[in-house]
Amino acid sequence: MKFHDTIAAIATARGEAGIGIVRVSGPLALPIAADLFRSPRPVSPTQLPTHTLTYGHVVDTTASDAVVDEVLLGIMHAPRTYTGEDIVEFNCHGGIVPLTTVLDLVVRRGARLAEPGEFTKRAFLNGRLDLAQAEAVAELIASKTDLSRKIAVDALAGKLSDTVNQLSDRIADLLAEIEASVDFPEEDLDFMKVETQLECARVVQTDLTTLLETAAEGRLISEGVNVAILGKPNVGKSSLLNALVGTARAIVTDIPGTTRDTIEEAVNISGIPLKLFDTAGIRQTDDIVEKEGVQRSKAVLDKAELLLLMFDASQPLKGSDLYLLQTAQSHKAILVLNKTDLPVVTTSEALLAQCPKKRVVETVIPEGKGLNSLKTAICEELLGDELVVGESPIVTNARHQDALRRAHDGLNYAIASLADGMPPELVAVDLRISLDALGDIVGKTTTEDILDRIFSQFCVGK
Ligand SMILES: Nc1nc2c(ncn2[C@@H]2O[C@H](COP(=O)(O)OP(=O)(O)OP(=O)(O)O)[C@@H](O)[C@H]2O)c(=O)[nH]1
Ligand SMILES: [Mg+2]
């Protein structure tokens, strides 16, 4: 696809930094650079070799070539560039004033400001990346842990797209076979038997299911999980938050009712980004502030995907403990039995008697005892068996998950129709639905408004 306009943006983050980059892509990129750039070497940017950096200055030609910034000019000729077009990058000093001044000069020479994600959209429309790879760019930028970074890098390299394309090819082959039997029913061609078609469809379905099943955990890794720490006053909730975060984030005292408001902190446990909520201890109280805190604790409970319910081993179970044990039944929860260094009144067995199916971890938070077991329990609770980034791709994106579900449903209908001996035309319709859904993932069949929605979520300059 050939674009007639040239786009420009500041591609680096706003703020003070060593360098900042103004990126320009399109037919005017090189002429604009020729206009604005002066180098000690007597050579115009249009003659500079591609994929090189050249030292020089950006000048304002309307102000007697006054120097605007000292820069390195990156030149990349089409088509082997990010967008597939000519690209120039002014590596300026990383302050907002030099960058906006250079950008302003570029725009005055005929470029226009790029929309969010427009460089990547051009890369996609010019066939440099497919849609799943383009989305991986945004996921890589937004990755919160090393694990999500690895998954995004793999997707950018085409790991997910390759698997999706292979599934599509296999469905397309089956569809071709079935359509041929519709088009040439009388001919004595060597068509697959229905049993063989059915077998083929089932094998594809197994692989599609395997990929779809990675989505629940994959999305958790990319989006993170809300984890709430709940328990009665003084049980050690804030101590636990601090231990998991690694700093004294929340105030810890031996006065029950210390935490009055919900405290939120991000932590990374074995590659899973967690948003941890420390809450006010739950109990009956007449104190207005504490009452509000208890209300908030209950609100946090509703939005948490995992609860860490804390109990004090040195005390008998009382009202609010029993309330939490009841809550545990209907939630994903780990029971944390803290203060096991003190004479034990409440045991793990006592907790398990109330909540037989939950994990119990015994801790002494100030000594760090049980913390590793707790981290392992959190991972196991969230991911099941350990998730390894290996040969197979992992689906982290809601749009991909939805498309895979549609592909799965289409194939299921096709399998049912084949098994019931339905006419091949009907089977073909369902196979097409499945094929189109897979095509959505890599952008073969994606509509313009969906593309706009995807790329509008990118940052400007990417
Ligand atoms: N002996 C012992 N003391 C602990 C343990 N964990 C925490 N503590 C102490 O218990 C007291 C209360 O700890 P916090 O972390 O403030 O308890 P909390 O649950 O946040 O309390 P509220 O904010 O009042 O609801 C502090 O004095 C901690 O040092 C433990 O495992 N053993
Ligand atoms: Mg507290």
Protein architecture, described:
The chain is an alpha/beta fold and 462 residues long. It folds into three domains: 7-129, Gyrase A, domain 2; 136-219 and 393-443, Four Helix Bundle (Hemerythrin (Met), subunit A); 224-363, Rossmann fold. It contains 15 helices and 13 strands. Strands 3-4-5-6-2-1-7 form a seven-stranded mixed beta sheet. A six-stranded mixed beta sheet has the order 9-10-8-11-12-13, with helices on both faces. Strand 11 (306-312), helix 10 (319-329) and strand 12 (333-338) form a beta-alpha-beta unit. Helix 7 (194-223) runs antiparallel to helix 13 (398-419). The protein is flat and about 85 Å long. The two termini are 19 Å apart. The mean pLDDT is 91. It binds guanosine-5'-triphosphate and magnesium ion. Magnesium ion binds at residues 237-238, 250, 258-259, 278.
CATH fold descriptor of the largest domain: Rossmann fold
Average pLDDT confidence is 91
Name every ligand kind in the structure: guanosine-5'-triphosphate, magnesium ion
| Beta-strand share of residues | 15-25%
**Largest sheet at a glance?**
7 strands, mixed
- Helicity level: 40-55%
Question: Within the largest sheet, what's the order of strands?
Answer: 3-4-5-6-2-1-7
CATH classification class of the largest domain: Alpha Beta
Concise account of the structure shown:
By secondary structure, this protein is α/β, with parallel strands linked by helices. The protein is built from 15 helices and 13 strands.
Topology readout:
Blueprint: E1 7-10, E2 17-25, H1 29-36, E3 37-38, E4 52-60, E5 66-76, E6 87-94, H2 96-108, E7 112-113, H3 118-125, H4 131-142, H5 146-156, H6 159-183, H7 194-223, E8 225-231, H8 237-245, E9 263-269, E10 272-278, H9 288-303, E11 306-312, H10 319-329, E12 333-338, H11 348-354, E13 359-362, H12 371-383, H13 398-419, H14 424-442, H15 448-456
Parallel strand pairs: 1-7, 8-10, 8-11, 11-12, 12-13
Antiparallel strand pairs: 1-2, 2-6, 3-4, 4-5, 5-6, 9-10
This protein binds guanosine-5'-triphosphate and magnesium ion.
Residues 231, 233-239, 252-254, 256-259, 280-281, 338-339, 341-342, 364-366 line the site of guanosine-5'-triphosphate.
